[in-house]
Amino acid sequence: MIGSAVVATMLGVHKALGTWTGCVSRYIAISDFVKEIHVKAGLPADKITVRSNIVPAFDSAIQSTRERRDVVVIARLVPEKGVATAIAAWKQIQSDGHRLRIIGGGPQEEELRSLTEKDSTVVFMGQIKSEQVREEMKRARLTIVPSLWAEPFGRTALESMAAGTPVLASRVGGLPDVVGHCNANSLFNAGDEMDLAAKLQPLLSSDLAWHQVMVQQQERYSRLYNQERLYRETLEIYQSCCAEVKL
Is residue 62 part of a domain? Predict the structure, then answer.
């Protein structure tokens, strides 16, 4: 509480002094969602540039739908990550030989396991090495990002797109900025297992539906998240700031 009060006082003093508007050349926000929060807090919108995290494309060919059988959730097992929503949605669909693989650990693990005790199609993999996570993501048919809290960006979603694996993400925080606000087949209402199940079933049952979403997301990744472009644009931001202060 004391630490929060000190930070709040510091922010208030500098806002009154004009530090945030007069002494800072540029702010970089990792998503439109983060920019909106800071604009509401009083930062000048014209000084905030949105520049996403950089996730290089995975070095592998996209596998056929026949090889992609599993759906993955990659998250710390805590309530705000919404893994329980993914499990509830999974119970409502026809899995037809597909499996739900949950990668990660955390204090909610025992509770989540109790929800799936008699379901052999749900596999808890625990915490595994990052290289293994990448391999699981590349082999997956789909990645679900079921967060309840407002993710500032949603790196897991972008990593899945970089792997050529379609994403179903909750419509909260910066996740829609990553997969696209207009991409109705890739977003579901946070915490709504019925909505998630309705979006999930066609992507498991229809190779055509899966392929359409995959292509749409790959085009978005190539167009907006090309790492060379992002490197160049980030460098241009710093060069512009240096020119403003004549460094």
Answer: no
- Please spell the DSSP secondary structure of 22-36, one letter per residue: HS-S-EEESSHHHHH
Closest CA to 24 of 54, 46, 7: 46
d(CA 159, CA 51): 16
Q: For residue 231, what are the domain limits?
A: 2-54+225-244
Q: Express each pLDDT in 95-115 by its tens digit.
A: 888 999 999 999 999 999 999
Helix (H) / strand (E) element for 197: namely helix 193-205
| Structural domain count, the chain | 2
**Residue 143, beta-bridge partner list:** 72, 167
Residues 120 and 192 in one domain: yes
Q: What is the dihedral angle through the alpha carbons of 182, 188, 194, 198, rounded to the nearest 10 degrees?
A: 50
Reading across the β-sheet that carries 99-103, which strands appear in turn?
122-126, 99-103, 70-74, 142-145, 167-170, 187-188
